[in-house]
Structures are given as C-alpha cells and as structure tokens.
Description:
Blueprint: E1 34-38, E2 42-44, E3 48-49, E4 51-56, E5 67-72, E6 92-96, E7 101-107, E8 116-123, E9 132-137, E10 147-148, E11 154-164, E12 172-173, E13 178-183, E14 189-193, E15 197-198, E16 204-211, E17 223-229, E18 239-242, E19 249-254, E20 260-262, E21 264-268, E22 273-276, E23 280-282, E24 288-293, H1 307-316, E25 322-324, H2 334-347, E26 354-356, E27 358-361, E28 371-375, H3 403-409, E29 415-419, E30 437-444, E31 447-448, H4 450-458, E32 464-467, E33 492-497, H5 502-511, E34 514-517, E35 523-537, E36 549-556, E37 560-562, E38 567-575, E39 580-587, E40 590-595, E41 603-614, E42 623-642, E43 651-655, E44 658-665, E45 669-688, E46 691-696, E47 705-708, E48 712-722, E49 729-737, E50 744-752, E51 757-760, E52 763-766
Parallel strand pairs: 2-13, 15-23, 24-25, 25-26, 29-30, 30-32, 37-52
Antiparallel strand pairs: 1-4, 3-10, 4-9, 5-8, 5-11, 6-9, 7-8, 11-12, 11-13, 14-16, 16-19, 17-18, 17-21, 20-23, 21-22, 24-33, 27-28, 28-29, 30-31, 33-34, 34-51, 35-36, 35-37, 35-38, 38-49, 39-40, 39-50, 41-45, 41-48, 42-44, 42-45, 43-44, 45-46, 47-48, 50-51, 50-52
Amino acid sequence: MTSDLPSYSPVACELTGDLWPRAEPGSDAYAYGSATLVPTGEFEVRSFNSFTITYTVGKFGIDDTGAIRVVFRVVSDFGRFQTDRPQEKNYVTATTNGTANLDVSYGLDGQRPWDKAITIAVAGGCLRPGEKITIVFGDTTQGGPGMLLQTNVEHGFEFKVLADVCAVGHFVPLPEQLTISIVPADPVQWQAILPTLRRTNEKFVFGLKCEDKWGNPTNRAAGKFHLQTSLPVKGLPEIVDYRLGHKSMCFENLQVFEEGLLRIKVVEEGGKVVAASPPLLIRDGDRGGYWADLHGQTGETVGINSARSYFDFARNLAFLDVSAHQGNDFQINNRFWAYLNELTAEYLDEGRFVTFPGYEWSGNTAVGGDRNVFFRHERRQIIRSHHALLEDREDLKTDANDARQLFKALGHEDCVVYAHVGGRYADIEFAHDGRIETAVEIHSAWGTFEWLLTDSFKLGYRVGVVCNSDGHKGRPGASYPGASEFGAYGGLTCFLGRELSRDAIFECQRRRHHYGTSGTRLHLDVQVDFTTPATLFERDPNLFDNPVQHSVTEAMMGDIVQIRDDKVTLKLNAVTHAAIERIEVRNGERILKTLYGYSEKDLGSRIRILCCGAEYRGRGRETHWTCDARFSDAIITTVKKINIWNHDRKFERVSDKHVSWQTITTGNFSGCDIWLEEGEDAAMNIETSHGNLSVALRDIGRDDVVMDAGGLERRLRVFRLPEKNTTCELSGELDIDISSEGDNPLWVCITTEDGFQAWSSPIYVFR
Length: 767
C-alpha cells in the first residue's frame, strides 16, 4: 500500500537532446580541465545553501578572453544569481590562484535547456595548466544568506561546467556530472485523492499523501488516521498508520457495491479532519471517469528529473489513471525515443494505469505551432518538426516542417493529435485535420486559453476540450508552478470511457467524450435531450464518408448530432470538491445562462477581487500585476488568496483597510477574497499596474464589476459572495433554441470557489 519512488541517478547524458560544439580543441575532454563540487548530498527545497566549485585548468590552459561557464536548466526556479550585492541572497564570487583577472557575469547565455549561466571570463592575462578557479554560489562571507534553491524536488540537480579554453566561443562540457539531490521540505497539507465516476463493483484507487509548502510529496509526514466513508468500501481499512519515510499510501482494488456518492475524510486521532477526498459518484451505466495528465516533459528534453520517475509519479504520487510523456521533438534523440517506448510498454497496466507513447511536435507558430501526438502502439516513427538540437541526422527525411505536412505524414497512423498552447501556440487556422486532431488543450501550466476553442468554432471545427499540465518538473497530475513564470497549476482531463484500456481511451478521444479541469477532480455530466429522435454520428460527417449513425433521444458531451426540432433541452449535473461559485451554459461564445448555488439574498460581506487575462497569445503572455485594495468606512476582518501559487510573491494585509499583493496571470485568474465589516458609505479603491477601479460597496453584487485592462481578455473583476457557500452539487436544465445556421456548440464552464475551473467538451448540434 505504501508507494515510494526509488532512488534515481541524474538524467543519462546519452538520452538528452543536448547539442554541444562538434569542433573541440582536442580529443580528450579532461584536457580542458576538471571540476569538483562541495558540499554534495541532500538539500531541502527552497533552502539557503552555499556551494563551491573548484575548477582545475587542463593541459591547454585558458587563453586571454577564454572562459568557463556553469550552466543550469532554464526551468529551475532557484534564486536569480547576482555578483554585486554581497549581503544579499544568491551572491556569486569567483577567484583564482593564477595571475589573470576574472570577470563574473550572469545571464541567459547558455543553450537550451541549459540557458541559465554564470560565466567566468579570463581577462588581462591567461591561466596555466594546474591553476584553479574557485566559484562560490551563495557566498556568505560578507553576510549574504546563500543560494536559494528551487521549489521542486530533483534527484540530480546539476551544476554543469563548460570550458572555452581557446577563446573561440565554443563551450565544451566537462565529463564530470556535479550534482546534488534536492529533497522535500516539512509537511504542510494532506491530500486525499479519488476518481470521480465508477460503476458498482468496478475497482478504483484511493491515494493519500502529504505535500510540503511547494507541493512536493514529502517523506517527513506521519500519523494515525481514521478513514470516514460515506459509503461502505471493500478493501479500505478503517485505520491507517502512515509512517515516516513514505511519500504516499495507495489503496488499490477498492470496490463499492451500491450506488451513491462516496466521499472519504481523513481524520486524525484528535478528531480533526486533515483531508477530504473529491467526490466519487458510484452509478451504474456504460461509462467510468478516468483521470489523465497526458502532457509533461522531463530532463531528457527541457524539463527536470527522469522519464522513469515521471511515470512513477503519475501512477503512485498523483494517482492518475492515464498518462503520457510529451518531450519537444527536436530534443528527442532516437535513443530516448526508443527508451520512452520501452517505458510506456513497461508501465501499461490496463485496468489500473494506461500509458501512451507520444511527443510534442514543436514547430514554430508561423508554420502551425505546438501539437501533441499520441500513438496507440509503441515503436512508431517519430515525425519531428526539425532537428535543431539533434546531431543524429539519419532520419532527417522523416521530418514534417509544418503542421500541414505533419497531418499528411500521420494520415495513416493510429494516433490522435491535440492543439496546444505553450511557448509556441498552435495556429489552428493555418492547419487542422479533424480526422486526427480531436481536441484543443485550453488549460495547462502555461495558463488558460478558451480562445483556442472559440477560434475553432469560428472555423467550423468540431473538437473536444482537454487540459493537461505541460509540467516541466516531473510531477504529472500534481503540477505546481512554484516560483517560475508558469502562472497556473497544471490541468487534468477526465475521459468518460467504457473501461480503463488503451482502446477505450482512444475511442473517448476520437469521439470527444471527455472534459478538462484546471487541476481539480470533480464530476461533470452534460447531456442534451431531444423531443424527436435525432441522428448521432460516431465520426464527423463533414470529414468521414458514411460514418456510423444512431437514432437517439439524448447525447453526451462531445457528440455530433443532427436534429429535426428547433429546440433541445440541456441537462447538467456537477458534484465538486469545493463550493461552486458559478456554472456558465454556453452556445459557442455566448453565455446562455449562469447558474449559482445561492441567490442575491444570500450574499454577505465577502468581496472577491480577481486579476484576469494575458498580454497576448505568444510566449511572453504573462501579465505581472501589482495591486493595492483600500477601503473606506469598512474594516477588513479576513483575507484569503486565490490562485496565488508563488509563496515568494508579496501578499500582505497592510492594515485593517488595506491589502497589497503581486501575482501573475497567463489567461487564468488570480486574486483574493476579503471579508469586511461595512458601514453605510463603504467604498473600495483598487490601484493596479494596469488600471484603477473605484466603487461603492453597495454597488457590488453577484454580477461582475469589470475594469478592462487591455491585452488579451485582461481585466479586473470584482463581485460579492456569501459569507460561506456550501453548495458542492448543482444541477440545471435549460431549453435552448437551435440556430439553423451551422453548429450550435453547447458546453459548460464551472468555477469553484477555491479558484479551479472545468470545461465540458461541446455537444455539436445542427439542423
């Protein structure tokens, strides 16, 4: 029942998509010098430490204007190095026992994925063989606290040393791998994880873990707990002894034999509830709900940690049902591609954990932009966008340099493709093949991108909604953004399948039978009922000849249906982990109705302030917000932040009338709730880095008060909520007029009070 990741070595050099200079001074890299690191061992995430690298000059010496360089992975969110403020954090120094001068600088001077670089240039002389350079990262000798480590666990955090000994601009890596292990911090929050839809007798997993402040499963937690269940569960003990040294407990092959709603509370001996699971609906039918994160990278490409630890995390620490790896294609060498296929075959365990071989086609936006490719079977040829970081050119002829070529090359493959928004967003107008590209990813660690789906409506496409993490830190299914420029928690997708198998999940993808969330697990059921039997197409009739058809009186999310009437009835049911803030029912871009679990009369003295949106669609989409909310004739009693994941950013209750914070949005939203004691003339003034808003509190109700801030859907939203909202289940029914012109994509968006969202795949209704 206990699930602990094995000990891992640093990512194997032969599996990484690094491309270093092909021309070198000699044939022996040890001739360019050698390096040692002290101390080594284990160090806690986000702790201050000091590390010393001693570089010994090799037989070539180092010429005047030559240099050594220490590089780090670009996604590591350790503190930014600096060289001129000795009493502050992350101060770096370099000295030598030779006679030359040293010039120390920090910047993004490396190469992907080793972009972050400290460069020590030799000036006014040279260094001779055997002389040394001593580099101190986090020098504390003049009062500085040290080097601030990253927020995530890494088995082999590397200080990679490069040398340009002949001053030609070619930095060649030394053979030594100088690594430390970054380990979890003290426990902060327990997590209890269930799936959200199973049938009676169908097996499922309950997972329990404890995370540190930054979301890393920690092995420093212990306790004895009583598991309180709302339904009897076969195979689940009543008492759990969670012992020190474990990172999780995983209870498999559980069953419930009666229909109902299962919630599990984890209660410590004193009676305190330390964790509560999401809801698991036990309902007989032809489908279960299977949770997936199909998109993430590791240290073999641009991320952190190894591909093996990635799949271990997905299964044993995130308790996923489905997972896949998505490295950038131009960094996947043939050896790593073969190894990935070995891993997905090894971890495939149908009925418990389903894997897919796949990769991220990483063409520039100008030629189509990022796409996620998933094969049903192993050992298929990877069709890359280019070979930018690959020395092996033997399969160069298989490349597809734009997305149109990609779809043509994949036309006879047993695969599906998603359109993705990452560093390079997908241009679905440039290229799209609905026979293969079944979905658009509208949430990931990069942010929220509803515009990608609404663009598809305008273009007449019929695609489903998926959400994934695109995590770069090896934590699929529980991808916290940490202190980096990733502003959002990673997403999840729930597949509504007949069973947990590759075939069933592939069928879900091809028929869009799934919904996505911004990282939470909740149950969502959306269907459309018809008075007169309608025609349901298993494949898009605009793209496939003579697709299988069915006469139906109802359709589920993702279905394509032709109707005879001019009205349909949409029914929805949501059961959530936290109180529901609102549910929007939409036809394409139009919001038809907003459902709440409370009325205007239930509103209290809780004001929600949300920063939303992005700069633009591209790589630099993050918007930095600085906000100050001040109140008159009102006193602040409580403040709670929402979706502010970076604990290093300012969030301060300055006084009983003033709250100040900083945050990032990348298409998602972030802000806070403020509870107030209000006078008759209470008012609020919010000053932000993107505009100001002044409003009397009596004018704030359930509907948004909005300040437009330009950019891409960038705005400030303010509205009022009940003092306490307890609605965690909401059903609705809506009669909808169906236009006779084109598709009517009927879908819903749920927002829960703790800041998470969920989106159903549209039901495409036409007449």
